[in-house]
Amino acid sequence: MGKPLSATAVSVTATYRAFISAQNGRNAAALAPLLLEGEDFLWVTATGVTIRGREAALERSAENWRGTWSLVPDFDAVTVIDVAPEVALLHVPAHFTFAPPGEEAQEVEIKWSGLFRKVGGGWRVAAIQLTAVA
Predict the structure, then answer these.
(1) Number of domains making up the chain
(2) Taking the model in full, what pTM does it have?
(3) What is the rounded CA–CA span in Å between residue 57 and residue 76?
(4) Which of 7, 66, 73, 113 has its CA 20 to 30 A from that of 86?
């Protein structure tokens, strides 16, 4: 039997599950409140593109959703680390399938790392770093 999850790990993982559901469901209304508001949000894609701010992230997501989009994390392999009070890091391997509209889908294994901040009693994704697995 593994080590019991901390309350932070349980809450952050629940927020991440909601994030994945919103992404795979192509649901901007569900995604927006899960992302940190303003320009402090940061997303670095697996190809090194940097997206700053929640609105830019929502625009990029809408672009991505026009094509093939599926992110399937290995929830059994989630690691959550308490970084500081009200700040946590979630790391998980995931299978990512994507393609612009009309192009053949690519399937890659990635490592998804996200920094989460507790804001107003709930966890928000503050930063995302995607790393392609060679």
Answers:
(1) 1
(2) 0.93
(3) 27
(4) 73
